[in-house]
Amino acid sequence: MLKEFKEFAFKGNLIDMAVGIMIGGAFGTVVKSLVDDIFMPIIGRVTGGLDFSERYLVLKGDVPDGTKLAEASKIPEAVLLTYGNFITAFISFLILALVVFIVIKKVIGSLKKDEEEPKEDPKPSEEVILLTEIRDALKSGKPS
Question: What is the pTM of this model?
Answer without folding.
Answer: 0.53
